[in-house]
Design goal:
The structure is a single chain. With about 130 residues, the chain is mainly alpha-helical. The chain has a domain of about 80 residues. About 45% of the residues lie in helices and about 5% in strands. The chain has 5 helices and 2 strands. The protein has a two-stranded parallel ribbon with strand order 1-2. The chain is globular. It starts with 19 loop residues before the first helix and ends in a 7-residue tail after the last helix. This is Reverse transcriptase Ty1/copia-type domain-containing protein.
């Protein structure tokens, strides 16, 4: 599909969470409808979707997304079951979750202040500017 992002979103979460792990899980859950829509839209345009990858920089959130309730600990045991719909999508082969180091997490461009080389790298990946502006 080229270089730019097919879809990028930055929204405020609808609930307050008490840990970063739960916040990551809720964030993926909130984005799941847009992820599904994007996949179906690309397929309906005649393109073949080989892989649907969610990049995650939080190892604990990845375990919860992959294993569901079986990975719950003391702080996450009261988490609402609806946030484990991601687990169903992963088990059905609809998508995969892969680790991405925080320094390479493209989504952070929208939510965290970046400067210098990191800003230019993320900007170029997202906007795909011509050579005269990079």
């Amino acid at each position: 599909m080229g270089k730019g992002a097919i879809i990028a979103i930055s929204t405020k979460q609808k609930i307050n969470t008490d840990s970063l792990t739960v916040a990551e899980l809720v964030g993926v859950h909130d984005a799941l409808p847009m992820i599904m829509w994007s996949r179906y839209f690309i397929i309906s345009q005649g393109y073949k979707v080989v892989d649907n990858i969610i990049h995650q920089d939080n190892q604990s959130a990845m375990l919860l997304e992959k294993n569901g309730r079986s990975s719950c600990g003391r702080k996450t045991r009261a988490l609402n079951m609806r946030y484990f719909s991601t687990t169903d999508k992963i088990k059905s082969g609809f998508m995969r979750v892969l680790h991405c180091p925080t320094a390479k997490m493209l989504g952070d461009f929208f939510t965290k202040p970046t400067q210098g080389t990191l800003f230019h790298t993320f900007r170029n990946l997202i906007m795909n500017p011509s050579d005269q502006y990079s």
